[in-house]
Amino acid sequence: MIRSRLFFRLFSAILAAVALFAAAIYVFSVPLIEEKAYEIELNASRTILDNVFVMAGKIDGSLEDRRAMTEEAYKAQLRNVVSLAASYLDHALARAERGEIGEAEARRLAFDGLGAFKYGNNDYIWVTDYQSVIRSHPDPEFQGRDASRFQDGDGRAILPTIIAIARDRGEGFHTYPWQRLGETRASEKLSYFIDLPHRGLVIGTGAYLDDIDREVERRKAEAVDDLRQALRNIRIARTGYVYIFDAARKMIIHPNPNIEGQDFGLLKDPATGRLIADELVEAADSDRPLSYLWDKPSDPGNYAYEKISWVRHFKGFDWYIASSVYVDELKRSSAVLGNRLVTIALALMVAAGALGYLAVDWLMRPLNRLAQTAEQVQAGNLDAQSGIRRDDEIGLLAEALDGMVRRVKDDILTLDSRVRERTNELEEAETRRRLILDAIPAAIAYLGRDEIIRFVNRGWAELVRQDAGPLIGRDLKSAIGRFAHNAIQPHMERTWAGEEVTFSYSFPHPGGHMVTTRNTLIPQRAASGAVTAMFVLALDVSAEKETEARLMEAQRMKAVGQLSGGLAHDFNNLLSVILGNLAAARDRYGEVEGLDSYLEPAVRASRRGADITSRLLAFSRQQPLKPQPVDVSALVREVSVLLSRSLPSSITITVPDEGGECWAIADSNQLENALINLALNARDAMPDGGRLEMDVRLRSVSDDLTFDEPVEPDDYLEIRVTDNGTGFAPEAMTRAFEPFFTTKRLGSGLGLSMVYGFVKQSRGYITLDSRVGIGSTVTILLPRAAPVAMDGEAEAATPSPALWQGQLALIAEDDADVRAVLRGQLVDLGFSVVEAESGDEAAELFGRIEGLSLVVSDIVMPGISGIELAARIRAERPAIRVILISGFSFDTSPGADDLVILRKPWEMSDLASAIARTAEPSDAA
């Protein structure tokens, strides 16, 4: 025992000394050598980059000098050409002054001669007078043309500017866009010109700047080729190199021919997944190099080699100049030296270990075998035996260990195998059960009779917004809260009594919306029949409930709209009869004293009825609309001016500032009515005064957004009308857009319904946000339009009814009362009238009646419709005027766009205006 310890200590001391010596060499020498060698190579790469950067700077400076020299040479040439041309012009005009030829002939010869003169790259001479009329130009398009309105990109007049400079200074240079001869695309042109005050002319010539640019670019290309040859001879370390790319990620110079001249912007760094070009640009002019993976010239296309690059941005050419070297080459020299030192240290350690081993092996061999056997047994190898047979203490120990291992093997081998198999089976079953329950799209929990949670799946944990692990072992009330527990307690008591219970429960989500679940409680009975636990199954049906509610609301609004439209049509027929007969009574019996006091209220009431039908048509989306691009910002400001005169002074109106144009596709009149309705509603909600805000802005919808219905992704114009009034109660919010529903004592209930119908008919969306005591906001989305120049429309004067005396008209109307009113009005206007009760009857009559000049037809009637009747008349007898009448909206069927449509109810003046708007017939049919 003592000898074993002594030999162990000696052997350990030898190994420790050798190890410490080798470690000291490695720790203090190898890292320092590797660091210095790496630093030297890295600095060399940076130095080479700086030298190349200086070379690029010299090239840039040379090119700038070259450009300046080229531009000065062009200017000198322009001066010479203009001087020569001016001399020629003076010589030609002097002949007229000497009387040799006439003045007109002299000017023609002078200007034609200058117009035919060409030099350089198809350059020419031009002459203009002080009024910007071009007197000489090689392009006939400009010869003699007034060019005072020709402008450059900044909106400045070109020739007036040149003339002003020439007359002020006598001569000058000016740059402006102008097309070459024979081309349509304008290029920047530098012109030199002089003033000829005694002639009243300005003469000049010019050169296109792209000619100068091509000369400079040619020199730049030569310089880049020289730089490319120089860089290909530069090597950093063994295979490192310098390369250049531009801001467009195009490789300008690179030793790899597969990359040079190519766009490498899509190449990714395999290590980071980012674009290598972006990483190089970010590292430009920083104090740190970029590390990334790249290929080698000897192995092109294999981007698996780590590189380090210094990058600098050369702004003159917008280049990125980079020096690149492979990391393994930087580390090669230091790694070689370090490996040698490590090899020496390892050799010393191996030699010392070998000597120590020889010294103690003869003593430690049996102990090692015994220890190895113990380790094998500890690792679970019960078949291990030491095999030592000695007559000393080591032999006794080995014999005892071998016997013990054999007995333990016999006792536990079978039991251990069975336990392991059973454990594996249980673990696999539990894993499968957990995966299945977590994958089910439902929340599942298992409760004991004491309401302690025994199991939850992932869905139930997410439903109560907690982790599944901490929920196990907690009582149900602490997990879901006292309020929720009290709500479901009666259902749980029924389940504990043995009944399977299904119920719904709603609770607020932290996101602000309500969550509705359908819950089923299933009792679990013991063998005795007593309920000992229960299963809880919960399904989130919030989306189904919301979809069902939206569908029912949409169907209800559609049904109300259809009913409203039908009522409006029938009511319009009645109003047409009433208004027509009232007007006839006024015309025929107007001299009866006191009659007008009875007729006028009836007329006003009928017109109010017409306004109600108009609102009903707006809600049912049958309102006559003329959608066109509208500057909504300007319209809102105009509406605010009208409102400021009618709203109380206690209400402050805020509208968009001038200058911002926001255009939408809508009927401007109906949009104005909608805004006024919303403003009047806001006024009624603020009896004590307040703030009314009308805001307009552009809005792009790309994500999910819901107003009265889901909003289609597109570009829209958003209109927001906000007040700080009394607001809507929750029960009133759901019915706010229904016709005839109102919260005001004297309200008609058609204001918001008209706005709703107008928005939906305009292919828009609307939503109402309101809180009691805080205020309301109505938000409208309308299709966005591009700004357009709006021209005023001239109103046509209505001709005198005397123009129609003796003409023949055909009426097509299925309602006898409406037909009678229409007949009386046409007779009063001077027409003779023929009647038809259906479209089919009218179709027969118009083809057989001679001298027919006008057809007035209802759109909806038995037989063919008014639209079809109008189409037949146009095809067979186009000289006949056609007017359509309707109690619905203006028809938008194909072929009806340019027809005159008279809306029910109407007055005789409306009918006369409609006749005047029709095309005058060429002759009697």
Descriptive key words:
Beta-Lactamase; six-stranded antiparallel sheet; 48% helix; 20% strand; Heat Shock Protein 90; disordered C terminus; 925 residues; 28 strands; alpha+beta
Tell me what the structure shows.
- This protein starts with a helix and ends in an 8-residue tail after the last helix.
- The relative contact order is 0.05.
- Strands 1, 2, 3, 4, 5 and 6 form a six-stranded antiparallel β-sheet that branches.
- Among the domains are: 64-215, PAS domain (Beta-Lactamase, 2-Layer Sandwich); 440-540, PAS domain (Beta-Lactamase, 2-Layer Sandwich); 623-783, Histidine kinase-like ATPase, C-terminal domain (Heat Shock Protein 90), CATH 3.30.565; 801-917, Response regulator (Rossmann fold), CATH 3.40.50.2300.
- The longest helix has 68 residues, at 30-97.
- The protein has 925 residues and is α+β, with helices and mostly antiparallel strands.
- Helices cover 48% and strands 20% of the residues.
- The radius of gyration is 49 Å and the shape is flat.
- It has 23 helices and 28 strands.
- Keywords: Cell membrane, Kinase, Membrane, Phosphoprotein, Transferase, Transmembrane, Transmembrane helix.
- Its EC number is 2.7.13.3.
- The modification 4-aspartylphosphate is found at residue 858.
- This is histidine kinase.
CATH class (first level) name of the domain at 623-783: Alpha Beta
The DSSP helix count reads 23
- Cα-to-Cα separation, first versus last residue: 140 Å
CATH topology of the domain at 623-783: Heat Shock Protein 90
Bin the helical content. Answer: 40-55%
Strand content: 15-25%
Shape, principal axes of CA atoms: flat
Rg, rounded, reads: 49 Å
CATH architecture label of the domain at 623-783? 2-Layer Sandwich
> Count of DSSP E strands?
28
Low-confidence spans: pLDDT under 50, at least 5 residues?
A: 618-622, 792-797, 890-894, 921-925
* Class by alpha and beta content: alpha+beta
Could you tell me the mean pLDDT?
Answer: 78
* Assigned CATH superfamily of the domain at 623-783: Histidine kinase-like ATPase, C-terminal domain
Main β-sheet, in a few words?
A: 6 strands, antiparallel
Domain Response regulatory: 808-919
Subcellular location: Cell membrane
Catalytic activity: ATP + protein L-histidine = ADP + protein N-phospho-L-histidine
Keywords: Cell membrane, Kinase, Membrane, Phosphoprotein, Transferase, Transmembrane, Transmembrane helix
